[in-house]
Amino acid sequence: MTVAYHGAGFAGFAVNPGARTVGGVLTEALERVLGRPITLACAGRTDAGVHAWGQVVSFDTDHPTLDLVHLSRSINKLCAPAVAVRDAAIVANDFDARHSAVARSYRYTIMNRPVPDPFSTDTAWHVETPLDLSALRLGCDPLIGSHDFSAFCRRPKVPDGSEAKPLVRRVQSAGWHDLGAGWLRFDIEAGAFCHQMVRSIVGTLVEMGSGKKRPGDMCGILRSRDRSKAGQVAPPHGLMLWRVRYDDPRAAAGAESEKRPMPAGPA
What we know:
The chain is α+β, with helices and mostly antiparallel strands. It is about 20% helix and about 25% strand. It starts with a strand and ends in a 10-residue tail after the last helix.
């Protein structure tokens, strides 16, 4: 299933007993409709407050009379308005929403003007300081390719005495778009991301756009593998899991086929 959700009010995606999560709400709704327990896999475990337009989830079921239209409608009634199934399909037995994915795309939205917009407070980061778009774009160039992104990621916990694995990721594209009226959008695609990677990159780029750092510093930050060299972590509410790509386009057709306009407040 291709799923969209508004991340406010959720403690992230991953099922966590005692906490309201997107995965927990979806699992509960699916089990209620199907009448049997399921195990849900997702393409990306988004953090608390992060949104999604093209999240992909998969699960196995032996329901004898599975009606995808009825299933989608039932789930949407149970999970509305914060969570919505955009598309549902039967896929090959070996398909897994996480492990079958070849790329994930995230979008980050910034409203860059002096006066905040009450209608976007939970979907865009309001940055009052004027940002230099050319500096933002120059800072993206060193990100392309395979790098150790340790400077931009929260290190996973490892047993005492063991060495943490390198956080190497391959970024396929990264760039900024001027949407007009102070709206800026950052798009990035990679095979996979580590924890807080996109938000840390955005926070660092914003410091470059505001003059606190230079775009030329990006190479040194990457090489340092030192989290303290990068900028602040951008707030979660501006981030959205936009799309997940698979080798078989039928695997997540809804994530590819539909365009969604970016949120915008009054001009």
